[in-house]
Amino acid sequence: MVKLWTPLILALIMGGTYLSGGKWLVHEVAGLTTIVLFILHMVHKRMWWSSLFKGIYNQKRKIMVISNLLFFFFLLATIITGLAGGGFIVNFKPYWGEYYRLIHHTHTILAHTTLAFFLLHLLLRLAYFKGFYKKVRS
Predict the structure, then answer these.
(1) What is the C-alpha R_g of the chain?
(2) Is the dihedral of CA 53, 55, 58, 59 positive or negative?
(3) Which of 42, 53, 115, 117 has the fewest other C-beta atoms within 10 Å?
(4) Over the stretch 108-130, which tens digit does the pLDDT of each residue have?
(5) Which of 33, 2, 11 is nearest to 119 (CA)?
(6) 3-state SS track over the chain
């Protein structure tokens, strides 16, 4: 259960910091924590990557794979723009100059899109486990 709630809490911290205009250091620490958890999750799910080209693709599996890949690529883009636009822990602001605003806005748009794909990822996984639980129970 901790595995499910941790990314949600981190997303609320990062979004809440952005909306309140508050402590950006908290936002960056939560972002770096998300990066570490993302890497650990990808290592833990490494067998999923090797199974992409195996088996039969029914409609449910196609939807899961497409949504997971979109979530992966949007999160990767959010991480890259977040690291590029960081200003407290990882400071690349001096290197970007006038392009910093563009990076910041791109990061914000990508973060909102990533959050939508994250929620879709969770909903699809919960629906999958709910159906699996029903099969095991009966």
Answers:
(1) 17
(2) negative
(3) 53
(4) 899 889 989 988 888 888 876 67
(5) 11
(6) CHHHHHHHHHHHHHHHHHHHCCCHHHHHHHHHHHHHHHHHHHHHCHHHHHCCCCCCCCHHHHHHHHHHHHHHHHHHHHHHHHHHCCCCCCCCHHHHHHHHHHHHHHHHHHHHHHHHHHHHHHHHHHHHHHHHHHHHHC
